[in-house]
Design goal:
- The complex is a heterodimer.
- Chain A is of the alpha/beta class.
- In chain A, 37% of the residues lie in helices and 22% in strands.
- Chain A is built from twelve helices and ten strands.
- A six-stranded mixed beta sheet of chain A has the order 6-7-8-3-9-10, sandwiched between helices. Chain A has a four-stranded antiparallel beta sheet with strand order 2-1-4-5.
- In chain A, helix 4 runs parallel beside helix 7, helix 6 crosses helix 7 and helix 7 packs parallel to helix 8.
- Chain B folds into two domains: 278 residues, Orthogonal Bundle (ABC transporter involved in vitamin B12 uptake, BtuC), CATH 1.10.3470; 108 residues, no CATH class.
- The radius of gyration of chain B is 31 Å and the shape is elongated.
- Chain B is 75% helix and 0% strand.
- The chains are: A alpha/beta, B mainly alpha.
């Protein structure tokens, strides 16, 4: 996360070229009220970044607009300095669990295979190495035993692990997750964090919408405090302060956070 | 008679119809699967009803150009064009206005169908052309089926199968997880239009066989039926094709056994028969299976709870529990446990104690997810792990 105010066009281009994912002037609106307004965000390579903010702050909207799932009113997205359309292979996505048809006739292993559909194309044969990769990804999230279950028979936490395995199968450089810890059990949260930190340590970049303020300093390196606009962004140590949190959450902070002392500052 | 029909011994026309209906069934079953999985089954209803004005207009145009107006190709072309317009109307209304898809379907279906009925009524009063038989597009008519019609069905069926084979990955992705499909670079509107295009082809070529009102059944019923038999999307496609083909072939054969039996409705009824059988008797998702599974599960829970009550010296209140335990020889009619019952009870209590430790210890987090109150713990953990856990059970007693 780069906090220096960049006004010069060429300098910003250099900053964006160095960033795995950079967003400039992103505005999305449902009807006449903007859900996010003129958001800038610059991810750092090999860092875990959290997008944090109150309900309705536009956290998921920012993710979806950055990935091109929804069309923004205005805004520019670059991936390693290039256009998103050319860089899709480098981004893996874990959507919110609620957006999926869980009664769909598909087994766990088939869901993981979906992570390879883009590389396989329309007619590419699924070969032994693809299956091996899928099994390996399941193993990394501890779901090997469930490979042949129908996806709807799993618990919420197990489903989330399978989604993470699918993202791993994409073998991307950037991992974008929408509320990965929402409604999952403690063991799953631990397992997911371990996988994500492993990715970061391997030089990958992780971006996640996160709702639990207490765990932000433990899990993440950088944080974007969002409330329609960016309130503050940067390394957790400098950015995740009482003052910035109050600015982002208004007066609701006391109800949003159980343990104010745990905030780094 | 029916055997003759099934073996294609009832003459040239009956044979053509049986083969044609079978091919149409395969194509519609396969095409309808992703429509059903995408939860957009009713769009096919809008498409099929929107064919009618096209049939009427094509007839009028062909008569105006000096023909008889009976060229099947011309009529189907008209049907295809007006169905495509209807489909685009639904698409536009859903995406660009605040109307939901259900309202858009209702509006397009009724307006197009109403317009088509007006067209046909006007055509009946015209003095030019040979209009007799146009109403066959409503409920299908196979009496005058030609070799060329059967070939058209075969070619379309092959095209539909090829398209679904090519597009199976994006189609499955769009139905299961549309947000992920878009985020990984597939265009959702294009996938949907391709799917609708496939359905449109099946609808148009199926008009003469089952008619525009019943073609919906042929698109949806096979897929719904197939869903009862498998948990895999690719298998649903294959089974739906088989069910559709079987309905078409058998339905046409049955209708050929008597002059008064209309082909389209019989085909749909055969499909319904297979659906009903699947609904009741499918081993995993069927009604019968789920009732039995529930009863078996309830009994296991009762026995387990009864054993735990015995082990803790508590009374058993529920009559069902008492009956089940008595029948299994675990207690005597007066409620006193037999030797066997005592052994089973202490085993159940030991299981429960071990589980409590597993569930309270993060080291066993993965095993703990398999707790359901019934699974014997030795099927989940190794003897070594059990030994470790048993050490923890006795440890506090030693301290005390």
């Amino acid at each position: 996360m780069n906090l220096t105010l960049v006004t010069d066009h060429d300098t910003d281009q250099a900053v964006r070229a160095a960033s795995p994912l950079a967003v400039r002037g992103m505005t999305v609106s449902y009807g006449q009220t903007p859900a996010i307004f003129s958001v800038d965000m610059t991810l750092r390579t090999g860092a875990m970044t959290a997008i944090v903010g109150p309900n309705g702050a536009g956290k998921s909207t920012l993710l979806k607009a950055a990935l091109g799932v929804i069309t923004p009113l205005a805004g520019l997205v670059t991936v390693f300095g290039g256009a998103m359309a050319d860089m899709r292979d480098r981004i893996a996505y874990v959507p919110q669990r609620t957006s999926v048809d869980w009664d769909f006739p598909v087994r766990v292993i088939d869901v993981v295979m979906m992570g390879m559909y883009r590389r396989l194309g329309l007619l590419g044969r699924i070969r032994g190495r693809h299956r091996a990769l899928a099994r390996d990804c399941l193993d990394r999230v501890g779901m090997t035993h469930f490979a042949h279950r129908q996806i709807g028979q799993l618990s919420g936490g197990q489903q989330q692990r399978v989604f993470l395995a699918r993202a791993l199968a994409q073998q991307a450089d950037i991992y974008v997750l929408d509320e990965p810890f929402a409604g999952v059990d403690a063991a799953t949260e631990k397992a997911i964090v371990a996988v994500l930190q492993g990715l970061r340590d391997a030089g990958k970049t992780v971006l996640a919408v996160h709702h639990d303020l207490a765990t932000v300093p433990d899990y993440f390196d950088d944080v974007v405090l969002l409330n329609t606009q960016v309130v503050a962004a940067g390394p957790v140590a400098d950015t995740f302060t009482e003052e910035n949190l109050n600015a982002a959450y208004g007066g609701r902070l006391t109800t949003a956070r159980a343990d104010p002392e745990s905030v780094a500052g | 008679m029916l055997a003759d029909a099934l073996l294609l011994q009832l003459g040239y026309n009956a044979t053509l119809v049986a083969i044609g209906a079978g091919l149409l069934g395969v194509a519609s079953g396969v095409a309808g699967t992703f429509l059903f999985l995408r939860k957009r089954a009713l769009v096919s209803d809008a498409i099929s009803h929107a064919t009618l004005p096209g049939v009427g207009l094509a007839f009028v145009v062909m008569v105006a150009m000096g023909g008889e107006g009976r060229s099947l190709f011309g009529l189907l072309l008209g049907a295809g064009v007006s169905a495509a317009i209807g489909l685009l109307c639904v698409h536009w209304l859903t995406r660009r206005t605040r109307l939901g898809e259900d309202a858009a379907i209702g509006a397009v279906l009724s307006v197009f169908f109403g317009f088509g009925v007006v067209m046909l009524t006007v055509i009946q009063t015209m003095n030019a052309g040979r209009q007799a038989g146009l109403e066959g597009f409503l409920l299908g008519s196979t009496a005058g089926m030609l070799r060329s019609d059967a070939i058209l069905l075969a070619v379309s069926a092959a095209a539909v199968l090829a398209l679904v084979l090519i597009l199976r990955r994006p189609l499955a992705l769009a139905a299961f997880d549309p947000g992920y499909a878009e985020a990984t670079g597939w265009s959702l509107p294009r996938i949907d239009l391709a799917m609708m295009g496939i359905v449109l082809v099946v609808t148009v070529v199926g008009l003469k066989v089952v008619g525009l009102i019943l073609i919906v059944a042929l698109l949806i019923v096979p897929a719904v039926t197939a869903r009862f038999w498998t948990e895999r999307a690719d298998h649903v496609v294959i089974i739906a094709g088989v069910v559709g083909g079987l309905s078409g072939y058998v339905g046409a054969a049955v209708s050929a056994t008597a002059p008064a039996l209309p082909t389209g409705p019989i085909v749909v009824l055969v499909g319904f028969g297979i659906f009903l059988f699947s609904l009741l008797f499918s081993p995993r998702r069927g009604v019968l299976a789920s009732v039995l599974t529930h009863l078996r599960y309830q009994r296991r829970v009762h026995v387990r709870q009864g054993l735990l009550a015995l082990a803790q010296g508590q009374p058993i209140y529920e009559a069902l529990t008492q009956r089940l335990l008595t029948r299994a020889g675990l207690i005597l009619p007066d409620g006193v446990p037999t030797a066997e019952g005592q052994a089973a009870a202490s085993k159940a209590l030991l299981d429960e104690t071990r589980w409590a430790i597993v569930r309270g210890d993060q080291a066993y987090a993965l095993a703990a997810t398999r707790y359901d109150g019934l699974t014997p713990i030795e099927t989940v953990l190794t003897p070594d792990q059990l030994f470790e856990i048993d050490a923890k059970i006795s440890a506090p007693e030693v301290v005390a």
